[in-house]
Specification:
Layout (H helix, E strand, L loop, with lengths): L3 H12 L4 H10 L4 H12 L12 H27 L4 H28 L8 H17 L6 H32 L8
């Protein structure tokens, strides 16, 4: 939410000819949200369009929900099953491996891509969002006891295709961001 403190800071920095990306970086390092910063610039510059990036809204929230569910399953339900049946340790270790892969995607999408694509939208964002949900569902299947084998089979037989689609969409996303001049490799 835009407040007077934010607006005053942006006005003061712009009057000193500080670049917008520097102002944004400084504000984000102080804990301001990307959307609030964008609204602040809009309020000062009189623009009417504030692009709300799905990377800072829906994709990040989707990943957080799926990560919480995954952690509850792996370190709650599945760990209790492992304690009661130690012979299932190999399945639990596989779950930890899948959780580690999910953690890499979580980090990339919630901290790297969301920063790179903040304040921008692209046509491929909806497709990426769909692939993210499908991929996260595959991860969840690997954490549900007795359904894990189905999840493993889905990853082996269909996960590679989902992965290729994801990579292609991410590449298009970077290219679209570059075309409109909003990608800054130094930020």
């Amino acid at each position: 939410m835009v407040n007077q403190e934010l607006l005053s800071y942006i006005r003061q920095q712009l009057s000193q000819k500080v670049a917008k990306d520097v102002i944004k970086t400084n504000l984000m390092s102080q804990g301001w949200l990307d959307h609030d910063i964008a609204e602040g610039f809009v309020a000062i510059e009189g623009s009417t369009a504030v692009p709300i990036s799905p990377w800072t809204k829906s994709i990040a929230k989707t990943n957080k929900v799926f990560m919480i569910i995954s952690l509850i399953l792996v370190f709650g339900v599945d760990l209790l099953i492992l304690i009661s049946s130690p012979s299932l340790a190999s399945f639990w270790y596989m779950m930890l491996g899948v959780l580690a892969v999910f953690a890499v995607f979580f980090y990339l999408e919630n901290f790297v891509f969301s920063k790179k694509f903040a304040g921008t939208t692209a046509r491929v964002d909806k497709g990426i969002g769909i692939v993210v949900v499908l991929r996260n569902l595959l991860f969840i299947l690997n954490f549900i006891p007795f359904i894990q084998l189905l999840g493993l089979a889905a990853i082996v037989y269909g996960g590679w295709l989902l992965g290729i689609i994801y990579i292609v969409l991410i590449i298009f996303r970077f290219k679209q961001t570059n075309k409109i001049g909003l990608y800054n490799p130094h930020s």
